[in-house]
Amino acid sequence: MxxxxxxxxIRRTAEDGKxxxxxxxxxxxxxxxxxxxxxxxxxxxxxxxxxxxxxxKIEGYGDAYLFEKMIELTREIGKYPTDRDRRVxxxxxxxxxxxxxxxxxxNRAQFASKLAAFCADKPEYxxxxxxxxxxxxxxxxxxxxSVSTGYGFVYLAKGHxxxxxxxxxxxxxxxxxxxxxxxxxxxxxxxxxKTDDQxxxxxxxxKRFEDKLMRGEWYKLSAADVKAFKRWRLIY
Length: 236
What we know:
- By secondary structure, the protein is α+β, with helices and mostly antiparallel strands.
- It folds into three domains: 3-49, no CATH class; 63-130, no CATH class; 152-235.
- The protein is 45% helix and 13% strand.
- It has helices at 3-13, 22-29, 33-36, 43-49, 63-77, 83-92, 99-102, 108-119, 126-130, 172-182, 198-208, 223-230; strands at 152-158, 163-169, 188-195, 213-215, 218-220, 234-235.
- A six-stranded mixed sheet has the order 4-5-2-1-3-6.
- Strand 4 and strand 5 form a beta hairpin.
- The two termini are 44 Å apart.
């Protein structure tokens, strides 16, 4: 690209009066540092010549933006994208972030778990979660070592009217009787979510309903809350 073309691209891709950083500009336009270094020694100099203040903070991609891009690609190819799928997409579509940007959210399995959590309260993304494949390795970094590295369950059990427990277990059939030993009313199983990231999925629901916490892992939930939980059967 020529000098004038690069300056025009900087102005054209600016968001809310803020020019893109080097990496985002390369992703959006295909212009590499090799291209613009022929005209400027520093990227800030190019930004200044384009009419922007070079020392302002340049925002990177937000997590939500990355999730949305992955959702788009998942729907486009009909499966959960591999690293190669992301590289191919980034090469053909300059608006798609490079694979290195996605890496900050973890490996493929960890990203899948976070993507599922992002989609959890958005029914319009149910089709995406339904086709998320099993991921290699642990789905979450720093998981509790007492939890099996295989599949387990995050469950919703009902106690007194309107009171529900959200917990995790590897053996649902054994867990329900165990809860009944210490409860004033025998809990009944409402729903389970099968997952290889019990800690992460359980933490998501605890966080989502934290304003409804009664005690321990018991929550005062509405019919809508229960319905939201029951939308999910499987999260990898």
